[in-house]
Amino acid sequence: MQGLRKAVLVGLGLLWLVPIYLMVINAAKVSANYGNATVWIPSDISGLWENILVALDRGRIAEGLLSTLIYSVMSPLIAVVIGAMAGFAIVALKLRRPFFWFVLIFSSTVFPIQMVLMPLFIGYVEVGIFDSRLGMVLIYTVIAVPFSAFVLRNFFSGIARQVYEAAEIDGATPWRIFFRIYLPMSKSALFAVFILQATFIWNDLLLGLSLSQSTDVRPVMTTLAAMQSTYGGSTMPVVLAGGLIVSIPTIVLFLATQRYFSQGLALGQYN
Amino acid sequence: MTITTGRPAPATSHRRGRVRQERLTAAAFLLPALALCVVLLYIPFVYTSYLSLTEFNGLGDPEFVGLDKYEEMFSDARILTSMVNTLIWVVGTLVLPVGLGLFIAVMVHGLRGSFWYRLPFLLPYAISGIAVGVIFSFILQTGGALTQALELFGLPFADARWLLDWPLNTIVMIVAATWQGAGVNALLFSVGLQSIPKEPVEAAMVDGAKGWTMFRHITWPMLAPMTTVVVGLSIVGSLKTFDIVWGMTQGGPGRVSETLAITMYKASFMLNDYGLGAAVALLLTVVTVTASLLYLRRQLAPAKEF
Known about the structure:
The structure holds two protein chains of two kinds.
Chain A: H1 2-27, H2 46-57, H3 61-91, H4 98-107, H5 114-127, H6 133-156, H7 161-169, H8 174-185, H9 187-202, H10 206-211, H11 220-229, H12 236-256, H13 258-269
Helix pairs in contact in A: 1-12, 2-12, 3-4, 3-6, 3-9, 3-11, 4-6, 6-9, 9-13, 11-12
Chain B: H1 8-51, E1 54-55, E2 63-64, H2 68-75, H3 77-108, H4 114-122, H5 129-140, H6 145-152, H7 168-194, H8 198-206, H9 211-222, H10 224-239, H11 243-248, H12 260-270, H13 274-300
Antiparallel strand pairs in B: 1-2
Helix pairs in contact in B: 1-13, 2-13, 3-7, 3-10, 4-7, 5-7, 7-10, 10-13, 12-13
Subcellular location (chain B): Cell membrane
Domain ABC transmembrane type-1 (chain B): 83-295
Membrane topology (chain B): Multi-pass membrane protein
């Protein structure tokens, strides 16, 4: 019985790896060797490096990567602190109507992002942050705040009240208690939120399409979409190489932090 | 706390001042998150609702037209197709990634080295929708990898135009989404399976239940809370489908494979019909919020404790 289950899983698992196999072997073909008739057969990997360089340079992936790196580090970093502050206010401080404020912040994740795109576009143009890195960092931060507040509120509510009271008796201010006690205690939750949000921002397409334009502001997924839709003069191996470059960071991050990933997911689903 | 002595009055006012001080601090902690959400999410939300009642192309001022845009939306054949596609997405992702996720989780449950068995399914989750689109449009393009394989083995459908014919293109895109999403559903179901208490399972085993009977009468009912979460997430996620479609067909050919999320984007940003785009966004919101209530009730319920 166990043997059968293992066989089924291995078979299905191999089937699951086929698209990745096809992507890798064809991203490695020099454009001259690439043809529909031979897509299943690997040729030597000589083309991989060249295709990556072309994607980075002519496909503008390099510029997109840099912007995306900035967005997916800065925004979740700011968001976890802001979200944790909100969670702290709701759980540990004597806030009036804590549940109301919690719902108000969290509910903003319920409606689809399409609902805010057009006003954001108009507002960004008016304020002068359309097509700017500042504008992109700002919106990605906002997107990450409610989830961060949600998870950290849950985490903080598991910290004994006595911790707060003891620190207070010792004369610590709420700010000190927050930064010196609560934040360090919740490192793993903060990290889980950071990882999930960084991955989400790294993979975003829609906000990039709507709020940016120039190659040095555009996040990398939007760049890849542009490259692929018109084929932007790029051959299929180059587009696949582009897809490969943008996928490697999240896959590596995911594998390295798998524990936090599932923890974050679990925290996201459960209280 | 303050020790009250023989002079209660000043002590009380002191305490009152302290409470006010604490409330101010609490407000200061809450303010950044609240301000960001209100300014960049809630106010835009209200403005989009208003835009849906106007004729506006981005130049000049929005002109109030009442429910005209909603009428237009429900009488435009292309938008109706988009609604049908969105519905196919909802049903399709409930059957494929959720069903397969459950299957994988049940198969993996209790195996040693479960991490490794689950890994191939989880990898695609880390890949972006647009990269999934790149891979699958390469596989499914006319004469592409799939056609090659089908021809080689003499299988049927070798001449299928996977991305060109409706509703076939929507269905194959759901398959691509399944490739990306089944693993995470499996992971969530696995968490659910692990949290099932041992006693009823053992009791049922003593009674001779195993295999399908065990699953049907013990495991499945006890998995219900997690199933609600996975189904809720799946419905809400599929309603918002954008990236994979954008990566594979851009909603084409023509506009036959659009989902509502794509239709909204095209109406607003490509056709400059902000009012229509807003109306589509609002429709999407109403449906999504309704679906969200399915699982949000669960998430928010325990929060009422404090």
